[in-house]
Amino acid sequence: MVRIVKTFWKIVSSRIIFSKPKKAKTVVWGVPKYAKEILKQKKFNLKKIEFIEIWGESYNFYILLRCFSKLKFSLLDYSNEYIAYVNPKIIISFLDNYRTFYKIKKNVSQKKIIIQNSWRCNEFRFFEKNVENSYGKVDYIFVQNVNIKKKYQEISGSKVITIGSFLSNTIQIKNTRKKIDVLYISTFRDIEKEDLVINKNIYLKDYINSEAKLVKNIHDICKLNKKILHILPSQKIGSQQKESKYYQKILGNKKTWKIIKRKNFNYKFPYKIVDTAKIVIGIDSTLLYEAFGRGIKTIFCDIRPKNEFLKKTRHFAWPKKYSKQGFFWLSKNDPKIINNVFLNVWKIKNKKWKSIINKYKQSLMFYDKNNSQLIKTIKKRN
Predict the structure, then answer these.
(1) Residue 261 — φ and ψ, nearest 5°?
(2) Residue 350 to residues 114, 226, 272, 279, 354: CA-CA distances in angstroms?
(3) pLDDT digits (tens, 9 = 90+) for 236-250
(4) Residue 3: pLDDT band by 50, 70, 90 thresholds?
(5) Confidence of residue 12 (pLDDT cuts 50, 70, 90)
(6) DSSP E strands: which ranges in the chain?
(7) What are the two backbone dihedrals, phi and then psi, of residue 93, each rounded to the nearest 5 degrees?
(8) Percent of the chain clearing pLDDT 70 (strictly above)
């Protein structure tokens, strides 16, 4: 009963669409902001697309009636009814960590496709549970590297293909002038509950404090080496002012550092920024891995506090296990170590860095220009 009441309130607070869904060859389940714009590009050849919004943005009245008449009230029920009515050839989702999508029914002529959306780890035990079922198998999963490919194969039984980042692949790598010396990719989150438990004895405040110390160390190293530190803030425009104050409290006046002002949603903007950086540095954001895949000199600082569980489930290059320190990564929040890695990466010649990219891209981030493998698969099925 509680679930029904929650569903009711979610529906009444959403936009209701009264026209029936259109018949379409392709359905996209869950709609990230960039998805509509990219998938409607001619190169994907998706002539008719129906988008199923799942976060309460809207509900289709006709589909709701079909669900309620059968006393079905879950998101899975709504999704199944929607897809059964539209009857597409292809069902796509970018929400690779949403178990509901794996359970959606399809007929034998339909193909389900998942595209990995972000860097993944096993902090929330997603890869410990088998999400495959007899009626809902996913046919294709497109992932970012060969090691995560093995993990998805284990839980899905699907055909898994390595393409790198779908979003980064759509944006051309431009050999523009490197205007930024050092770019820090912020993982700041505007969350009030610092006592939020991450895992057992590790709290959100521990994550926040470790990043604050890291940024301070990076800033000091930039000053030591006469470089200006630029910070790319998180994509939530509403929290930019708070984020700027957060870094100002840590770093002081802005003579030796700058925070980049992000525009209202523009999915291309972060990639244009990283392409102009000589070095990109950060902790574990997806954009950091994407920067590496785009050929940018990148430093990974695996400095989050860890217990025995997090050591195994959330670390640099997960699930691949490397030594605690390498040429372009480190695991100690120590100024001397950070400076040594910084100087190694700063001084390395571009030709030598390309050889490092070729050595590690399989384990970190592929780059498939214009998502050629994905487009090829879709065209076969569309």
Answers:
(1) -80, 120
(2) 35, 21, 19, 12, 6
(3) 766 788 888 899 999
(4) low
(5) confident
(6) 15-17, 26-29, 49-52, 58-60, 90-93, 111-115, 140-143, 159-162, 180-185, 197-199, 202-203, 229-232, 257-259, 277-282, 297-301, 329-330
(7) -145, 145
(8) 93
Q: What is the pLDDT of residues 129-155, one digit of tens each?
A: 665 554 568 999 999 999 999 999 988
Token digits of residue 378: 């879709």
pTM: 0.93
Contacts of 334 (CB under 8 A, 6+ apart): 217
Q: What's the pLDDT score for residue 10?
A: 76
68: Cβ–Cβ under 8 A, 6 or more apart, which residues? none
CB 197 within 8 A of CB 307: no
Task: Retrieve residue 260's tokens.
Answer: 């980049």
Quick one: how far is CA 12 from the chain centroid?
Answer: 30
Contacts of 48 (CB under 8 A, 6+ apart): 22, 23, 24, 25, 26
Query: Which of these, 260, 268, 304, lies nearest to 284 by C-alpha position?
Result: 304
- Residue range 329-358: mean pLDDT, rounded: 97
CA distances from 311 to 67, 121, 128, 195 (A): 44, 11, 16, 21
At 15, the amino acid letter reads: R
Q: What is the DSSP string of 155-209?
A: HH--EEEE-B-HHHHTS--------EEEEEE------S-TT-EEETTEEHHHHHH
CB-CB contact of 326 with 359 (8 Å): no
Residue 185: what residue type?
A: I
